[in-house]
Recover the amino acids of this structure.
């Protein structure tokens, strides 16, 4: 039987606004590179970063909880002008954060 991957806890934020700006820039780059650059990508990246910053400022450091918050709150976003949806955005945020921590997104190590 395989062992579950333990939860991933982000370090306490020193500057949530700076983290949010980093995430917005990285997510926008990912969105533009994954399919095609679109104006809506900026709005999507901005919204995801806002959710992330608010969650971090409220004390959320668990990556899984952050991903669920992004999925939940992005459900109200109108993705009709985009190739993406809330799950793709939340997964991309998770991948970017894991990469920033030096954790292999494939296997959690």
């Amino acid at each position: 039987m395989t062992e579950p991957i333990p939860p991933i806890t982000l370090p306490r934020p020193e500057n949530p606004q700076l983290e949010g700006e980093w995430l917005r820039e990285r997510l926008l780059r990912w969105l533009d590179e994954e399919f095609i650059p679109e104006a809506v990508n900026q709005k999507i990246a901005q919204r995801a970063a806002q959710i992330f910053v608010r969650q971090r400022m409220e004390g959320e450091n668990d990556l899984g909880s952050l991903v669920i918050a992004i999925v939940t709150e992005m459900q109200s976003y109108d993705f009709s002008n985009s190739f993406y949806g809330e799950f793709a955005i939340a997964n991309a945020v998770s991948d970017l954060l894991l990469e920033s921590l030096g954790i292999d997104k494939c296997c959690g190590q």
The chain has four helices and no strands. The mean pLDDT is 92. Residues 16-34 form the longest helix (19 residues).
